[in-house]
Amino acid sequence: MHARFTQQMMQRGKKALALAIASSLTIGQLAHAQEAQSVGEDDDVVEVIEVKGIADSYRNAIAEKKNASTIVDALSSTDLGALPDLSVAETLERITGVTGDRFKGNASEISIRGLGPFLGFSTVNGRAISSGSGNRSVAFSQFPSELVNGVVVYKAQQANLLEGGVSGTIDLKTIKPVDYGKERFQVEVRGNYNPYHAKFDDESGWGYRSSISYTNSFELEELGEIGFALGYAGVDSSTPEESYNTSSTLRNCNSNFALDGGSNCSFSDARAAANGGNAEDGDYYFIPNSFFYRQMKSEEDRDAAIAALQWRPTSDLDINIDGQWSNRFYFEDRHDLLWDDGRRRISNWSVNDENALQSYTGESRISSYGEYRVREEEYKGIGLNVDWQATDVLHINFDSAYTGTNRYQTRTYARFRGQRKFYDWQNSDGTQFPTVTNVYSDFNDPIGSAEDWTTDIQDMAYFNADSEARNYRLEVDDRISSYRLDADYALDTEFIYNVRAGLAISSHRNQNYQEERARLSTPSADRPAKLAAVIDNCLIDFPQDDYGDDGKPGFSSWATYDTHCAYDTLVGDADLSVDPKAPSGGDINLTEDISSLYLMADFSTEIGDITVDGNFGIRRVETDITAVGIRTSYTVETDANGFISFLANPDVETNVLNNSYTNNLKSLNLALGLSDETQLRFAIYDGLSRPDMWYYGAARDIGSVGADEEFTSVEAALENNVTALGNPFLEALESDNYDISLNYFLNEDTMFSAAVYYKQFNANFEVSSGIEPVVIDGVSYDVEVNGRVSIVDNESEINGYELTALHQFEAIEGLGISLNYNFANSDYETAEAGGNISSEVQERIEPANVAGLSKHNFSGQIYWENKLLSARLSYKYRSEYLKPFGPNLAQTNRIVDDTERVDFDFQYKITKNLRAKFQVLNLTNEPYVEQRVASEAYNRIEYSGRRLFVGFKYKL
User: Fold this and answer.
1) What is the residue extent of each domain of the chain?
2) Which InterPro entries did the record assign (predicted)?
3) Residues 217-223: contacts with CB within 8 Å, 24+ apart?
4) For residue range 212-231, what is the model confidence (pLDDT) as tens digits?
5) Model pTM score
């Protein structure tokens, strides 16, 4: 993949380098914050600068850098909903070292300093956030930027911070109405135009975003001050897609149908390509089981609300209640033109230096697939915080919270296959789709037997070989309850001036029900009638115009149908209903109880003219895991010869596994004031991250045992016969972390910052075995269980540096720039482990790095504003990174190609209260590209188009 990275840096990354050279600065960060606040409670008193525009927001960022004693980057606004981005994830991307995965045009799966989402931790108002994804990544889209007024990224750990982020902790902030201190009503409406959505015959291309909020506070004499804030945001948007894709299975082959014969391709020393030697030493190629072109319509309706109530009865007591709610309805209407038999009769193949196919001939059925996918997800969060200055020296804070997410997903599927045909396939450069250049019936006469296949696929009768219907259901329920108590005690001493102590308790319940599926293949005798019924009743015009304008697949449509209608036709009176909560070996039923205690001391002193501030402390964390799984229940039967059999019972048996472990996390933070303009910071700390929930399955698969195997004991029958479907004995991974940051503040509008960091951690996952109790017929046996996902005791390192520059030009009033760059490097290796790639070839494939690690990240902004208008042009670049296929460790490494994006936004102040807004996202219409195993082995090339927003914001 490194060759691919070099090529992309030369071809597409020139913008980033040119911008860096032209400015003579590498780097920058757009970060503005109103208060430096720990996930537990306030750490520093920070000068508050009211944000009125882009320039003032950067002043806020500089003030935060200068005044905070911890390594923190933040973006915030005084007003609710004043962050300029469309999502919190895009706001986070403007912080140095923070990157998002830009799938379907939207930023998600946030990585900090090159470490993937599974090594980060996210909170809202200092509380853990539930997730509907099965892992610990947070869907930031459920927190619209219109309802959030700040984000904080903690890049260093300290004892009073909730543990969970080796890479860092992201904390979202909502408004406190009494602290805000003003009455504010605002409403915003924006139209959203997507040119790709406008291609659809029944669509104009327009959607909308709307928000409304009201904040006020009052003085109630003897009752003190009370305030409230209410906000709502609604979205009706589209993320259509035109893409080329391959199946999840990839394998290596060296056979050539023209020379070796056979059907599906294979890998053998006997093939001609081996040249009489070992197959891995000869020529070979990587090939998927299938490939397809997708046309997809998708729409999202999301409603979200926040509420905050703050009551300050006295200056010593502050009570806050806040809540967040989000409901998301999302559907995808997919139509795929698919070559099902991707490995059949492969010949005439050519490859590049990394064995990625450049061209080949194959034989496959060409199929028309339809899938209608619906996902509904609801998030609820509520919290109570009581802040009490008990005495002049004692400060107490109590917090209680609940957060819950429920996700329900349905998939309705219909498939119609055509007859097998030979075809010629040609690879692309990654900006366009690979193409099928010819389809023909006679392998030995490709020209004479060529078919007008792009015309044939317009007729549904072409797909007459077979058909099938499927029904899928999935549900995830994730809930977290938490309590926290913190105390600060001020000391009258010269060095240590404050001591903090606290405890936190949480219970995390995750129920991830394995997706259930039912399928019905059409009997051969019924296929003609079923297809005729679909043609008569379900056929639709191709849903859009100008398919493939950017991808250039060589055709612009094919025969499509209403998926629900076709499904109903194929199913008829059959029952394909499924219950996602039906017991299944793949279900995750996890309870994670966490309790922690910490002790921390704040200190301040001077060494000559240098001020020294900071803190040191320790946090002790105890984690208790309870996982519940199912397995087949057996009765043991012994025959006359003394040989045993396992007889399966009709009911499943519950398997409960428990584990407990403890972590002690030490931390030291230092801030040195070298001069009024220069600061030097150090942080040394232990970090902790917990594996994703989907690894914690407790189900166990016990193979059948018959008398013919001649086992005379249960112990012997169980040997090498029990396979794990998860591992509740996984423990959190720790890291040793070292950070140095040097900041230079020329003035309130100019800052230069450089930071270096080093982390050492164990995060390599592999499949191993372990001893567990297994109950058979009421008797427990200690057995070695195979297939347990485990963290290998193999230390890895990551090191990197960050560069940031913020500057406003005096010569041109209102003109400014923000530049940032992050470099990350690691010796971590994610070895190729594709289950269908032979071990000899796996060893020759270059390992990938940490999931989510991009070696290079750059973002730059240039802006200009005055009293009436503001304009901003943004550029973001991210080099390639590994994106795993969920919890399956036997999948091939999937690499997301280098990505870049240009955005533009413009605002004009019409009156004191009314402002017009205009934005363009993905101005250059860059595709999203994935590769697997080898450079130019494309797994996905996707276009989703630009997005334009125009609207008005009224504020009173």
Assistant:
1) 2-246+290-339+368-412+474-514+583-955
2) Beta-barrel_TonB_sf (IPR036942), Plug_dom (IPR012910), Plug_dom_sf (IPR037066), TonB_rcpt_bac (IPR010104)
3) 217/177, 217/178, 217/180, 217/181, 217/182, 217/183, 217/310, 223/311, 223/313
4) 999 999 998 889 999 999 99
5) 0.89
